[in-house]
Amino acid sequence: MIYVEETLNLMPAGPETIETLVSFSEEQLVPCSERLGARLVAAWSSNADAFAQVMNVWEFDDLAAFGAFRANGSDDETWLACQERLEELAPEQSTRLMEALGPVPADVLAEASATSQDSPLGIYSMAILQVAPGKMAAFKAGLEASKHLPIVASWLTIGGQHNEVTDIWKGAVGQGAYGPPDDATRQFFRGLRELAPASASRSSTRSPTRPCVNASDGGRTEMPPPAIWPLTTLAVGRMAAPGVAPP
Fold first, then answer.
1. Is residue 245 included in any domain, yes or no?
2. What is the tens place of the pLDDT at every residue in 169-179?
3. Which of 45, 138, 224, 230 has the most neighbouring CB atoms within 10 Å?
């Protein structure tokens, strides 16, 4: 599977613009994208890098499907109108091209999505991991040995930062109050830092579109039936670590 993460800096940056994007996405952008072959598998917003910043992740079967999507959209009037409107709402945009990382196959995400439609989890976490040069094999081995952890997606960036991996976790990872680390945590991070010594973190605010997230108050707001995930809560973290984060 191929994934395209779309980052949108909304203008004017505020909740009203997010609500406008919600309506536009539900009514026009998502249906048009799905018709052309893109599947929305994650969506959230954050105030970390820019106020009212929205991120969508679109899934494609392979690079050929992604190419066909772009080719078909180039002369599709509805798609071109959607892009024009999206540029009005978000003049600043960036994208990352990613692929599924082997130890966490795409069907794990599909299964989690199906389960969450009946029983919404309420919160997810995201870690963006910068693997040290020469450590990707060890990174994959560590992820393969950690299948007991609630990681529902792991994506390797193939168009952007080298050796960058994005993991999606069930639940809130590292969101609790500070406390002295126990021996297991100490050992865990000693291993991680051998592969990636630096880290940073951030939290999301509220979600824009289907499937979407609302992390401002832990609540949920119902929307039309989602294609992939129901409305849920997402905590966002950026960590330079080797593919797994502390439970």
1. no
2. 777 666 666 67
3. 45
